[in-house]
Write a structure and sequence with these properties.
Keywords: DNA-binding, Transcription, Transcription regulation. By secondary structure, this protein is mainly alpha-helical. It has two domains: about 1-65, Orthogonal Bundle (Multidrug-efflux Transporter Regulator, Chain: A, Domain 2), CATH 1.10.1660; about 80-140, no CATH class. It is built from six helices and two strands, in the order ααββαααα. It has a two-stranded antiparallel ribbon. α1 packs across α3 (about 50-60) and α4 (about 65-75) packs antiparallel against α5. About 10% of the residues are buried. The mean pLDDT is about 85.
Length: about 140
């Protein structure tokens, strides 16, 4: 099987993948996207696989994966023996991380709701329960 001949400009790839041109350059520098071939003019020349890879990266970012995690997922996607199992494990880890963040945000939300309820919205700033809670070092534990 032969590799398709690179013929797409960076602008075309960016538009079709739904990412800015600077993002493509950044992903190349970070090793998430292979360095493209260069035309005689020095311009980058891409093939369809670059678009697929960029869409993969964008979707993984939308799911909350970090660039380092995406790098791992890309490497695992090429591993025919253990790739799928490891990808599932990474997704489970990401889900657990999201659940932990949701629990923390829920805790913060409840605390903020209580402070808002306790605040009359008028009077002396020193008596404001919100400002007191933010200034109280002991309550930060």
């Amino acid at each position: 099987m032969t590799t398709p001949t690179p013929s797409l400009t960076i602008g075309t790839v960016a538009k079709r993948a739904g990412v800015p041109i600077d993002t493509i350059r950044y992903y190349e520098r970070e090793g998430l996207l292979p360095e493209p071939l260069r035309r005689a003019s020095g311009y980058r020349s891409y093939n369809e696989s670059a678009i697929s890879r960029l869409r993969f990266i964008r979707r993984a970012k939308d799911l909350g994966f970090t660039l380092e995690e995406i790098r791992d997922l890309l490497a695992l996607s090429a591993d025919r023996h253990r790739g799928v199992k490891a990808v599932r494990q990474r997704a489970e880890q990401r889900l657990a991380s999201i659940d932990a963040r949701i629990a923390e945000l829920t805790r913060i939300r409840k605390g903020l709701e209580q402070l808002i309820e306790a605040c009359p919205g008028r009077g002396d700033p020193e008596q404001c329960p919100i400002l007191r809670a933010l200034a109280d070092e002991e309550s930060q534990a």
